[in-house]
Specification:
The protein is mainly α and 87 residues long. It has one domain. The chain is built from 4 helices and no strands. The two termini are 18 Å apart. The mean pLDDT is 80.
């Protein structure tokens, strides 16, 4: 139960990282839009009930680490491992 409550907060926290270090506003805006789509897919997967879908969601994070906080990669690895070890 607690995990279901924490997930939306975790998702929001993971996204609050800048998507680009570029100083060019056009590139930054484009990168931010791309990250918004990536995070949307990430959120959709994590909110599904199936274990495979949740793993796919965490894999989206691993495939796009620049759209999330730096420690999110370790969180994703931990979550994937935990999900894979569930019966």
């Amino acid at each position: 139960m607690l995990k279901k409550v924490l997930s939306p907060a975790l998702i929001l926290t993971l996204f609050l990282s800048g998507c680009s270090n570029s100083s060019d506003p056009a590139q930054t805006n484009e990168a931010a839009k791309k990250c918004e789509e990536i995070v949307k897919r990430f959120n959709e997967k994590l909110l599904l009930e199936g274990k495979a879908e949740k793993i796919q969601g965490w894999q989206i994070l691993l495939d796009n680490p620049t759209c999330f906080l730096s420690d999110a990669v370790e969180i994703a690895k931990t979550e994937i491992s935990a999900l894979q070890n569930q019966p």
